[in-house]
Design brief:
Elements lengths: L2 H9 L5 H9 L22 H11 L4 H9 L1 H9 L3 H8 L4 E9 L2 E11 L2 E9 L14 E5 L14 E7 L2 E9 L8 E11 L2 E12 L4 E11 L4 E10 L4 E9 L5 E9 L4 E15 L2 E10 L8 E9 L5 E4 L5 E4 L6 E10 L2 E9 L7 H14 E5 L18 E2 L3 E6 L4 E7 L14 E5 L8 E2 L3 E4 L2
Antiparallel strand pairs: 1-2, 2-3, 3-6, 4-7, 5-6, 7-8, 9-10, 10-11, 11-14, 12-13, 12-15, 13-14, 15-25, 15-26, 16-24, 17-18, 18-19, 19-23, 20-21, 20-24, 22-23
């Protein structure tokens, strides 16, 4: 069969687009949060890159994607490279701003190539040459220390939920940053200042000004509330904003406990189409007499304008107050305040530069599969925190980790007895994380129980659309 006939045959193969994109949206979000991210025990995910990577490697390219690439070969090509379907659609609509901004510092050239602003998402693509390989990272790894709008450090609102994707190309690397628009109101045309402080540890000040443009979104008012009295939660769905390639849902939560996470995981219309949700932006939050109020704008698939109802699926993740104990005792018990979980510390032994904590967890399911045991072991590596007691109460509540040389959380976990949930954690007192002049009687152990329970599915709520 010649190439032309092969192409025609391929393009007639039915492709289950919704299933493919559902799998992609369920995939792992590669985030740049510098805060210590932790996984819940029962979490599971599908890597979107693997799915699309297999598709591309097999030569099966969606015909619509082929047309976009033909119309906009440069811009469309980079979005295809990063599996960005919204970017491809915007490229088709000529709604992507092409950039040609280049700056070289310390022998490293950075070039920004495109930007778009659609719905809740701002995307920036670019290229960095092989000069980055003189830095500290392993070959093939590229990391940016970057801030936006002249903000500094981790308190930059543009960094909350920011993701970076990197692809090796000839003589360098292509990259894409995706950020949630962090403000309540949109500016249709504005300039986003960008400062890269270092790349792979190579210090410099690569500065750019990026034009970002978005036409006014269309608005669909919903304004319907669902109450969950048993979980001390109320949700008001306010409106859906629709841009060129995506939509955004704006909703408000009212909850008794400030740090509980209330998430809308998906919506299904009356025709069975599933709408997935991405990262959200908290645009307002306050404490009032009836509880904690939070307004959130969250990215979703573009809304079909011809539907009449949507059923929203909601889940809640409980945030349990951190339990803590001064290590002036060899054995003690920590209890969760909101969950039926406990940590029984049997013994604490310091062996030179190693600290070994022997313990059992109570309240876990009696029969643990190998997968769930592996997830628990993974969470235990990150859920302990040893803190210099002088810094208790001085840590940033948004990123509660003490300054360098005053805290350790990484540890190596060994399962002693699976049936009795008996484990040992070994901390390296002379590793990358340290406590100077470490003494047990001056150290507090903190433990977070929140990550050992699954998210709770709440009753779905169906709303009629105006």
């Amino acid at each position: 069969m010649d190439n032309k006939k092969m192409k025609m045959a391929i393009e007639q193969i039915p492709v289950p687009k919704e299933k493919v994109f559902d799998a992609i949206n369920k995939g792992l979000n590669q985030t740049d949060r510098r805060k210590k991210g932790r996984k819940r025990v029962w979490a599971s995910a599908v890597t979107a890159a693997a799915i699309l990577g297999l598709t591309a490697a097999s030569g099966f390219i969606n015909p619509t994607m082929n047309k976009v690439l033909a119309q906009t070969p440069l811009i469309g090509g980079i979005f295809e490279e990063f599996n960005d379907t919204a970017g491809l659609e915007l490229a088709r609509q000529n709604a992507v701003t092409e950039l040609n901004q280049t700056m070289t510092k310390k022998g490293v050239k950075v070039k920004l190539t495109s930007a778009y602003f659609d719905g809740n998402v701002v995307s920036v693509t670019g290229y960095v040459d092989e000069g980055v390989e003189k830095g500290h990272n392993e070959k093939g790894e590229v990391s940016f220390d970057v801030n936006f709008e002249h903000n500094k450090g981790d308190h930059d609102p543009w960094l909350n939920g920011k993701s970076t994707d990197i692809k090796k190309v000839e003589n360098g690397y292509n990259f894409q940053w995706k950020m949630n628009y962090p403000y309540k109101t949109f500016r249709e045309n504005s300039t986003l200042p960008v400062t890269i402080h270092n790349i792979n540890g190579i210090k410099g000040e690569w500065k750019f000004n990026i034009p970002i443009q978005q036409e006014k979104n269309s608005t669909l008012a919903i304004n319907q509330m669902m109450e969950y009295p048993g979980d001390d939660v109320k949700i008001r769905l306010k409106e859906v904003l629709t841009a060129k390639a995506s939509s955004s849902l704006i909703y408000e939560t009212l909850q008794k406990y400030k740090n509980d996470e209330i998430r809308i995981t998906k919506a299904i219309d009356e025709k069975g189409k599933v709408y997935r949700f991405g990262n959200g932006t908290v645009t307002e939050e306050s404490k009032q007499k009836d509880g904690y109020h939070r307004t959130i704008r969250i990215e979703m698939n573009k809304l079909n304008p011809n539907i009449h109802s949507l059923t929203f699926h909601v889940q809640t993740n409980i945030a349990d107050p951190t339990a803590e104990q001064l290590l002036n005792k060899k054995s003690f018990v920590l209890k969760s305040k909101r969950l039926d979980l406990g940590l029984h510390v049997n013994n604490i032994v310091q062996k030179g530069e190693k600290l070994v904590i022997d313990y059992q967890m109570t309240g876990l399911p009696e029969k643990l599969s190998q997968d769930k045991l592996g997830m628990i072991e993974n969470n235990l590596q990150y859920n302990f925190l040893l803190v210099d007691k002088a810094y208790i109460g001085k840590m940033d509540p948004e990123n509660p980790f003490p300054p360098k040389n005053h805290g350790i959380h990484l540890n190596k976990v060994e399962t002693i007895n699976k049936k009795t949930a008996h484990f040992q954690s070994t901390f390296d007192l002379n590793g990358d994380e340290q406590i100077k002049k470490f003494k047990l009687e001056n150290t507090i152990l903190q433990f977070d129980f929140s990550h050992f329970v699954p998210a709770k599915e709440l009753k779905p709520m169906t709303v009629e659309l105006p």
